Inverse folding.
């Protein structure tokens, strides 16, 4: 009897402690309702296990539930059967990167990016992003809501719900706006929301990083004297047409709170999702006397800045001559 028990114990130990995982880079996705048979099939398809028989036996010994916890799992090389079973028994998912980047001007685009990294589809994510009562519970409006989504990379779990993702973004936004940044915004006569909105405009005006603090300074100067911002990107946003190359007088007729030619001050919300470094460019804006800027005749994407309208008109004529020479 003692010998039988000893042999049995040794056998169980050998099964549980047998190294049974191979190197795997591709994740294993487990969906709601997937069972042990589905799990084994996925592990086989992924080339993860050395032995399915010993894994099944280990799963039985360690009481792995029949229905497996949904998630995105990556099994590291060199794990034994007990360790592999534990990963799925406890739902020890492997997080991955959700990168919010690019020119994101709509909730539809943002929903597509988020849904590519979680189990919810784009429609479900968009429903959460446009849920008026939820947005209101965060102390935001449909105009200000986009401000909490900062361009950055975040580690998330595949099973995170759209609501959890939004709440995570709100926490990240609140963390970003520490006391130092809030104080810097106040010194510039801005709130955190104002600075975020202004950063979204600045980001659309130039791709040259060194110009961002200068352009921010131009708009802050205009705000201080009550001069309309007259920012072309806000008109494009109002028209829902980012592809417009030149703003014409007919475009300026649109009656929208985003038309900064018609309405003074900042628009009610960001026109795109700004990156943290551009928000910091606004907070560290360049102090100067410029009120105007236009593209340089060099046509390299850089801008000429001016303190007076006559100087600005001269710069604009030089730019137009450069454009005319290309025709």
């Amino acid at each position: 009897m003692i010998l039988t028990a000893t042999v049995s114990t040794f056998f169980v130990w050998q099964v549980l402690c047998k190294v049974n995982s191979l190197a795997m880079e591709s994740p294993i996705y487990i969906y709601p309702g997937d069972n042990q048979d589905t799990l084994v099939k996925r592990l086989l398809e992924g080339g993860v296990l050395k032995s399915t028989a010993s894994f099944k036996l280990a799963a039985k010994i360690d009481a792995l539930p029949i229905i497996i916890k949904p998630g995105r799992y990556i099994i590291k090389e060199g794990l034994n059967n007990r360790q592999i079973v534990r990963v799925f028994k406890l739902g020890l998912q492997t997080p991955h990167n959700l990168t919010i980047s690019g020119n994101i001007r709509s909730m539809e685009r943002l929903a597509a990016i988020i849904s590519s990294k979680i189990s919810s589809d784009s429609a479900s994510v968009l429903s959460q992003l446009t849920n008026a009562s939820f947005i209101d519970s965060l102390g935001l409006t449909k105009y200000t809501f986009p401000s909490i989504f900062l361009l950055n990379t975040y580690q998330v779990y595949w099973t995170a719900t759209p609501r959890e993702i939004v709440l995570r973004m709100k926490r990240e936004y609140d963390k970003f706006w520490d006391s130092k940044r809030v104080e810097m915004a106040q010194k510039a006569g801005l709130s955190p929301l104002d600075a975020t909105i202004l950063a979204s405009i600045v980001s659309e005006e130039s791709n040259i990083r060194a110009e961002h603090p200068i352009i921010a300074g131009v708009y802050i100067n205009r705000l201080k004297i009550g001069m309309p911002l007259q920012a072309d990107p806000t008109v494009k946003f109002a028209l829902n047409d980012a592809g417009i190359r030149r703003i014409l007088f007919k475009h300026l007729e649109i009656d929208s709170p985003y038309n900064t030619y018609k309405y003074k001050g900042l628009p009610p919300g960001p026109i795109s999702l700004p990156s943290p470094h551009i928000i910091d460019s606004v907070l560290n804006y360049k102090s100067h006397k410029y009120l105007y800027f236009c593209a340089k005749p060099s046509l390299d994407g850089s801008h000429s800045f001016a303190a007076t309208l006559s100087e600005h008109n001269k710069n604009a004529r030089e730019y137009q001559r450069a454009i005319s020479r290309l025709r």
